[in-house]
């Protein structure tokens, strides 16, 4: 006699039959009928038509029958709200039953019936049950409040149930406390700001006491609630940790993981030199290892969480590598996770073991797993430099197996190894080339093509290899096509003589025969580059590539912190922020790890650094002043990261299929050595102080004029360049230090920057912007930092400036506000440039014009300055000033005093006229400046002083 | 890269958060839903289609990922006894919480019906329903301790079924379970036995990976102490060990007083009534783990030949004088192997040409005459030599011995006057014991 008999009646009149049985007078028959109804329900049959008949059975002394009817009610009340009302009376009566089991059952079931009309009747019985003498009823009622809140939140608030619930946190029975916490947590989730769970040291203490005594499920609720608390200081944090650690030995893995969450969070507040900190770290490892001996489903969730933990605190599990070794009959989802963690734990100390394992995995049957194992070998090579060689030889061994997918995966990772360690392992290229024909996956083909292109000069038959790919060009995937195009252009730039035809062919395939806009555009860009400036093409195409970082898939630190606060949740399984799991932003609070409060290490926490960086602009004098909307302006600037490719020169010559364009290009390529170096020299680094011979027209004119002046004037000196000063100290910019100066070279204003990375991480994606300034200075191109800036690396960059940017008068006039961005943040600083930078080369006025202008400018606009302690004679001074585009127009000698008349033209067309009096034997010069815009005089004077004294 | 098993499409859960487990579906190995239970509103069983899709993608039944996102729900599943227990959740719920609960459901079914099979569940569908309702309220676990559940809902026995039918009484307890709210919620009051007995089984499973050359890559021991305690009244037991220092990584039953353990390394507890797991422990690879068995193997395929050699010899090693019993070897041979022609020196062997699974039931190992399995494998003619090396899986038992050396010192009882029978048994088994070739 088993319950399966309830399934046997499948005749047509089943419902009718049941109806008759339900209305039978015999108790036993009734019960059997209800059982049949329930059985139908469990397999998803619709038995809602029997609603009134089943409800009629509710009034009974038989507890089992009552329970069954309640089960039925819960399932169908929603679809029959009017009928459900019939049950209310019985519920209310049952809530007063002397048997606590029945009272609890009634209040529990009522809460599950999501019918508005019933909820109204629920309030009174619920209020009584919340204060019931029996804790079993109270704990059931606590959960019922959460149910009711879900149906009608307003009602719960109006009835004051929330306060009653809060009172239950102080209940004498730990199970009641746990359920109250669970209910409040659930309610709080839909009211993020309600402050329902007002956690303070007293309530925390109550929770910790209840933690020891309640059931395992209650412990999870309490621990999850504790995790939301932020202790006041490290001592409180430690005492909570001490009381939570025994939970690590619980048999229920969910309890363990919730305890780990609390500890991982509160540990953040403990000073690292504290003994207890070390003890705690040691205590965390064993329970995590134990989780891995549980059922595979538990292992999977544990592994996803361990993945976060090893990223945050690798020291916890650094000696436990072996437990992550894969057993061949682990489910695939466990294998893949273990592999990921193995790579994260890989270090110089254990790399040999790890590699031996990975090699073993690469011979397994499951293709996905094998592929990932091969990739993992590549990741090890990139992560642990000392192991790179061994990794490469392991990969070569695997390639020798000739197992198709292994070979392809290996080639993809070897490409990355080449990127990381250029010019180290090229000896293996020959072996790779042997496998060219077996590659049928786009990623592997693209990787192989990249290798051939990159090392074309070392591969004798590179052209043949690439040509062989070209045959089926249109059948290749875009990835391969793009790579092939680039590789052939590289090849051409390296071996121009033999590969003309090939490059022609690929360019025309890409530009004329392809429908893919990306491919076409890249083709055109190469074509134009090659036809206009092959030298530039070489610089662009063969530019040094940025290094690839050590660990490619680390979780971004702020997200990691948030996920650590959510250990054990779905968010931690998916490694996505919890906000991604709830529709709308309601109910989502971003949790952060608490800041360390102990002494000494305070500044280490990222929070603190953030805050400091945020408030720095106001505090530091040299940083942007809070001048109205200035900061806003800067922030709105479009800080595009510098791209690695220089925008192609805009020439209109876009003839297709022309053969002749290569002629010129080829010549200059072949003679590249001669042309290349000066072109390079002009743009970069510290150019020679003396102007190079190939100066452009205005300067040439200036030189001519110089000789016109007749005797006394020697060779011009170089333009004055102020020494470099620190503009942005490292401590204000998360480790980026910027110093620099301004220079005018060959008529181009240049900002010369020295970027130093004093942080521990690599900096990339530099970009620069200026705020509006007095003379419209603006960067004429992107900030050319092509390679990432490693820790303790310094790079010198010179940034050409134009004077056509937006203008706003600054105070002082030559103030410049700059924003520099990198992958870490945006930083602001301000600096002052010498106005002499703006003195243009054609600033020499005709004598007559000078005289007329001098008279024309009102005397009010004249200002006089003294230059003290200058020991040059007038000719030497004149000569020196000429170097900075201050031109002497005439010289008179009156009573042993030399009078020099000079003119200056600023980049915005303002003329400044000057009279310099130099008396032999007197180290003090007198200078009078006349200008229609007298504001500049002060700056000009400063320039005189600077130029003459240096 | 690490998300391959996890992510198909990111689903977003609807607010209002419906906390905890929403529904449960039981799915058999042929993919039919044979039971559903909803704790809140009814979720259409079509939600399981996402599960079936994942099931289809998985190469083996056990490879179905345990967490599956769907547009409005998450499905968290465990596979036990070839039944998938699929929980539907709608909000951010700790997945381990759900998985632990599902395991508890399975354990309860097994406890109640002896086995946890589709047939047993269908036969007891009403009890199953009552149990599920009792175990979870509004998605919060309510009563999951077997002791308490058995007071609320009596397990079916043939006798009771007969009695119920005759007398019309029920198998639902009328009284509030006594343990539910006491300080010892795991024990019911008023327990009475004529024979008072307490038995403890120390069972250790060794997991190991041995490489080709016979050296140990990893070895660890998962141990448990399972107890069967049938004692009258409220006994308070203490159990002490000769070498408690071995136990540095332990998980206790909630009855164990943790403070006492921390301070004195003594297990002090009021036991639940009946069968329960007192503690489980883990002896990691850092401590040296003795490997009780060795395998000499020579499995080779020659290029161009359609024959392969197969030789396997087993021998005992570090067994502390105890014999190896119930030895069973299994190995998944490469796909290229058509058939085998092997000769066991003892026991029987089978090879399934379809699944390529070789298994050899060795039985006892006699150290004087080591068992061996030798012969040839035939390969597909003309096929290239298989790439993968088969892994050999070994099962065995060692009676009267715990491999880690753990020994119980004494068991004392306080709080009751009678003298109980006490007994302790030790056993070692192979867990996942694998030898690579």
UniProtKB/TrEMBL annotation, chain A:
Coarse class of the primary localization is membrane
Q: How does it sit in the membrane?
A: Peripheral membrane protein
| Beta-adaptin appendage C-terminal subdomain domain residues | 839-949
Where would you find this protein in the cell?
Answer: Endomembrane system
Q: Which residues form the Clathrin adaptor alpha/beta/gamma-adaptin appendage Ig-like subdomain domain?
A: 720-830
Keywords, sorted A to Z: Acetylation, Membrane, Protein transport, Transport
- Into which family does the record put it? Belongs to the adaptor complexes large subunit family.
List the PANTHER family: ADAPTOR COMPLEX SUBUNIT BETA FAMILY MEMBER (PTHR11134)
The name on file for this protein is AP complex subunit beta
* Source organism of the structure: Coregonus suidteri
TrEMBL record, chain B:
Q: Origin, by domain of life?
A: Eukaryota
Q: Which InterPro entries match?
A: Adaptor_comp_med_subunit, AP2_Mu_C_sf, AP_mu_sigma_su, Clathrin_mu, Clathrin_mu_CS, Longin-like_dom_sf, MHD
Q: Which UniProt keywords apply?
A: Cytoplasmic vesicle, Golgi apparatus, Membrane, Protein transport, Transport
Q: Where in the cell is it found?
A: Cytoplasmic vesicle membrane; Golgi apparatus
Q: Which Pfam families match?
A: Adap_comp_sub (PF00928), Clat_adaptor_s (PF01217)
Gene Ontology cellular-component terms for this entry are:
clathrin adaptor complex; cytoplasmic vesicle membrane; Golgi apparatus
**Ranges for domain MHD:** 195-436
**SUPFAM superfamilies referenced in this protein's UniProt entry, alphabetically:** Second domain of Mu2 adaptin subunit (ap50) of ap2 adaptor, SNARE-like
What membrane topology does this protein have? Answer: Peripheral membrane protein
Tell me the PANTHER family matching this sequence: AP COMPLEX SUBUNIT MU
Please report which protein family the annotation says this sequence is part of.
Belongs to the adaptor complexes medium subunit family.
Recorded protein name is: MHD domain-containing protein
> What is the species listed in this Swiss-Prot or TrEMBL entry?
Coregonus suidteri
